[in-house]
Amino acid sequence: MVAHAFVKMQGLGNDFVIIDARKSAFVPTNAQVARLADRRLGVGCDQLIVLLPAPQKDANAFMRIFNADGSEVEACGNATRCVGAYLARSGDAAQNLRTKVAFLKTHTKGEETFVDMGAPCQTAQGLGLTQDVDPLYLPVEVAGMDAPAAVGIGNPHMIFFAEGVEALDVDRLGRELAHHILYPAGTNVEFVEVKSRTHVRMRVWERGTGVTPACATGACATVVAGVSRGLLDQGAPIQVDMDGGVLTVTYDGARVTMSGVTRLVYEGTFGEALFD
Questions:
Q1: Residues 72-82: what's their mean pLDDT?
Q2: Residues in contact with 27: Cβ distance below 8 Å, sequence separation at least 6, in sequence order
Q3: Tens-place pLDDT, residues 129-185
Q4: What pTM was computed for the model?
Q5: Strands (E), the chain
Q6: Catalytic residue flag (residue 220)
Q7: Which residue segment(s) compose the domain that 222 sits in?
Q8: Which of 45, 82, 215, 220 is labelled catalytic?
Q9: Total structural domains in the chain?
């Protein structure tokens, strides 16, 4: 029976099964991803991360990202931080990653991992929206909230700025909004309360997973939208409070950087019998 090694890591409560397939091939089907992610029948995680040989010499690995339902997505900031920490722990001199949409530089210092997330997307065409609308103020109506903003950080986000986010039914709203007609491939949805010009509270619904304790690309998208709307200070470190913990995000008007703590949970192996 073939055995596959994995590590379980988490960043702000967002948990990942990481399989390093740079030397031994592992190409899961959607059903296999869903079984691995199942918290009763498999290992259990929000997302499965598969590391493959990098296509260019500037990166340590090519990262594929699968949601718990088996669907593949373009980006995940918390996963990027966890993989960066994993590569650092494994002794890689540099911890650079390629994904389907980006080249990501990471470095780890102590328990904190830093990521240069690159330039955000704020155009309707780049975001793949079905209409040529202003991404900073989408024509989406939700009672008691202003129009949301659309930002892409490798994956799409719809960001609402509102008061009283603790009382919102994020699960219901997320399900209703994640497949809005503007987003043919679906979107993550963030609900954000601005505490000060350098501090926000964010709750999130992630496509393919549901309500999660944290979303790093969502935190980055939130800061980009907040700076673009004049609600947050450009170039300043912004504290983003989520259910799972805190990220620090900076947007200088061109590029986004973020940092936060990751944790190794455990290491193990699973056999092909898991998929029977």
A1: 92
A2: 21, 50
A3: 999 999 999 999 998 899 999 999 989 999 999 999 999 999 999 999 999 999 999
A4: 0.89
A5: 3-11, 14-20, 47-52, 61-67, 72-73, 95-98, 103-109, 112-118, 149-152, 156-161, 188-196, 199-206, 210-212, 238-242, 245-251, 256-261, 263-271
A6: no
A7: 124-254
A8: 215
A9: 2
90 and 143 in a single domain? The answer is no
Q: Characterize the bridge pairing of strands 149-152 and 156-161.
A: antiparallel
171: left (phi over 0), alpha (psi -120 to 50) or beta: alpha
Other CB atoms within 10 Å distance of the CB of residue 128: 16
The total of other beta-carbon atoms located within 10 Å of residue 43's CB is 18
Q: Which one, of 165, 184, 192, lies nearest residue 124 by Cα?
A: 184
Active site residue 215: yes
Is residue 26 within 8 Å of residue 5, measured between CB atoms? no
How far, in Å, CA of 87 to CA of 22, rounded?
12
Nearest to 216 by CA among 240, 197, 199, 235: 240
Which residue intervals of the chain are DSSP H helices?
30-37, 77-89, 124-127, 170-177, 216-228
Same-domain check for residues 111 and 128: no
Q: Which of 45, 76, 82, 220 is catalytic?
A: 76
